[in-house]
Records
---
Amino acid sequence: MRKEEVVQKFGRVLVPMLTAFRENGDLDLKKSQAIADYIVGEGLCDSLIVGGTTGEFFSLDFEERLSLFKSIKEAVGGRVPLIAGTGAIATREVVNLTKAAEELGYDMAMIVAPYYCKPTQKEIENHYRIIAGEVKIPIMLYNIPLFSGTNIEPETVRALYKIDNIVAIKEEAEIHPLQCTRYILECEDTMAVYSGDDTMILQIIAQGGVGGVSGTAQVVGKVLKEMINLFLAGEVAKAVSLHQKIYPFLRSLVQTGRKNPIPLLKFAFSLTSGIDVGVPRLPLLPPNEEEKREVIECLKRIPY
């Protein structure tokens, strides 16, 4: 499966859904199913990602992740392609999670580069090679140096794209804004590159990427889809105008020194969907009233 086939099957707007928790911090599967049903029912995604960064996979244990995969498959399986976020520090854990997702019938696995342990490029390559050799499910590499602490270099991607079931990469593009072009050139324009940074979707597509893995699409997905379609149709000025309307909202999610947008994205989603998804798991804290007001003001400017 190469670039055109990936786009045909998974589309251009892939949404990493939020995960709901109860007041005591326990996983709320019923409400998480409601989130998935809303995103799919409102047409906000082409494909749905379960247990990605936006879904706070990093705060879930192994069994919680499996239960989330199962419950979302039950809720929306068959309505849109499902992608399982199966990244972890240890290669053996990723293998086990990815095998489980494959057995459940997920259509793809999105796997973040090993984080915290600061692997070399050779270790990153070996990590993905082992996983890809253990499963048949298509794999999307996930590069997010802001959180993982390491970059998947273009030369490493070149080595990995030759593996049949490694078919795409999510690139957190604001840190390395032109790395997308290097990925595309190294892979001879056969790997699908998605922006993992919502502020950079147009810029990624302009370089030859195919779309975005967008957490904010569960709030403004229809506008994002329109922006992408306008750009691809040659209506660049109109696409840029929509980008400029969305951009302040995107920045409002990381106000007051926040690096992680999840707390404010949960607030925005609850506001626009009518589904109270609660707060993130600690150590992330919910927004204060001033932060909420800024998000509300930014949302007012978007024709979503």
---
Amino acid sequence: MIAPIRAVDDRGGMDYLGPEFLTWLWWRAEADPCFRHEDGTEVFVHFDEHLEFRGERSAARRVILRTGMPGASMEARAALRSGKTLVSARILMARGEDEVRFTLRAEDLDISGLRLPAPEGDTPYDRLVACLDAQDQFVDDLELCLKTFLATRLEPRWEEEVETIRRWSRQPSQDEIALPA
């Protein structure tokens, strides 16, 4: 879960920012999944197929949820409610018809398993250029999400945002809402 405002840790790092970003992005993807570039281009974010949570100081206290929509599951909310930290997630970002899937690790914001749209073009060179353009677009879109988070994180209203996320984590998940009474 997101902790209150903290200073740089004893080693000079800010290790908590990655998990805070990932948790904030998950909440934002459910509350308002649309991010807008300055030119008006919209990017939609969805958490997809994989969430990994970890308890403090122990890999044995790890929860991994896969397939379907784990972000909507009872288990994901239960992990947050029990104090586990979101440390890795599979994310889908869509810009128009183009979709990109990747896994983001909170610890170091490492990206893996990046799937870009199939490059189009008549020649290998055209397809290479299309692939490089798609990579640039992906970086721009992820940077937009990170900049939005950091701008929010540095504002005085951050504590209000944290409280909103805590309330969200305590609400029933989509799975819990769908259960018959």
